[in-house]
Amino acid sequence: MEKGLLIVLSGPSGVGKGTVCAALRKRKPELIYSISATTRKPRQGEADGVNYFFKTKEEFQKMIQNNELLEWAEYVGNYYGTPIEFVKKTIDSGEDIILEIDVQGALKVKEKFPEAVYVFLVPPSIDELKNRIEGRGTETADNIKHRLSMAQEEIELLKHYDYAVVNDKIDNACSKIECIIVAEHCKRFRFIENKTKEGV
Amino acid sequence: MEKGLLIVLSGPSGVGKGTVCAALRKRKPELIYSISATTRKPRQGEADGVNYFFKTKEEFQKMIQNNELLEWAEYVGNYYGTPIEFVKKTIDSGEDIILEIDVQGALKVKEKFPEAVYVFLVPPSIDELKNRIEGRGTETADNIKHRLSMAQEEIELLKHYDYAVVNDKIDNACSKIECIIVAEHCKRFRFIENKTKEGV
User: Fold this and answer.
1) What domain count does chain B have?
2) What is the CATH number of the domain that holds B6?
3) Do A114 and A197 lie in a common domain?
4) Given an 8 Å threshold on Cβ–Cβ distance, is A182 in contact with B179?
5) pLDDT, tens digit, for every residue of B83-92?
6) Contacting residues of B for A195, CB less than 8 Å apart
7) Among A80, A134, A136, A86, which residue's Cα sits nearest to residue A108?
8) Helices (H), strands (E): how many in chain A?
9) CA angle A45, A24, A9 (to 5 degrees)
10) In this complex, which of B127, B163, B191 lies closest to A187 when CB atoms are compared?
11) Domain containing A51 — which CATH number?
12) What is the pLDDT of residues B120-159, one digit of tens each?
């Protein structure tokens, strides 16, 4: 049977990863999304195994020790991470899974899971981003410099990715990501892998 | 400006390259198709630069000598080949161009144009192909053996391609090829190439 794909969707903060993911969920309800583990308390309406895998601090630390996370980080006193097991189970069942994650997290995932498909959401125009930062008029020259170098650093990280998808319009970005998934399934090496497994 | 892509669509004889190409033309009228040069005489209704570039034997031989063909072959006394110029012009203008060609021709093209996107149309099932060849009941054991080894050889050539598209249904195959084109335009290295050219 053909294995599923892990699609890592990332990009600089503010590029619209969450919005694009929400739109993808609507367009392709059959796509599975990676569920994070966290030590933060569930909010009203949140269910374990749906919104998050809710863990105690001790459980989470054990997951770290046992190498059960693709990546993890601490954020305002709570741990957040991506459990390997859910990703592997999904892929092994032949289904694709999407992981929406910041650029730092994506790089950590790549170390453990280089065979995933890495998609970088790009702001519509780097020039525009530059203009926006410079043109706000509310920031000091130092701040502008810092933000520009941050943006430059984030764009630099693009080199670790397989695909660059410009988020000019949400529907355009979704269509492109959907096509990337289809095309990746057609990659010759995957086809040959599957045929070899089937013994043909 | 972003360059166009050369998409080489190939596969074993009988897989349905022509049918898929004709369907693609209908679905995507904006796609440009490579026009072959030939020394065969125009048939009624055929126009130079539309169906073929019609050449004399001398002109064709000069094209061979001047390295103006991506590939060429002789077939029942006539030359057929793919002029480089038309392909390059199209790509440089930012448009994609599709070249439908047999597996032998595609390999020759790859030598001169490795940066093209190589798509291999695969019969719905290799098992089925096997059954079909064995099940015809009209062929000698030697013929069956020969056909099976031919099919095996053709499938072996798949390793030179970027993508394998199973031609189970024409519409499926077309959708996949369309997605491959979209995804290839999103390839990170192309994006960075273009940004570098734009000086961003």
Assistant:
1) 2
2) 3.40.50.300
3) yes
4) yes
5) 999 999 999 9
6) 126
7) A80
8) 8, 9
9) 95
10) B163
11) 3.30.63.10
12) 999 887 666 666 667 666 678 887 777 777 767 877 899 9
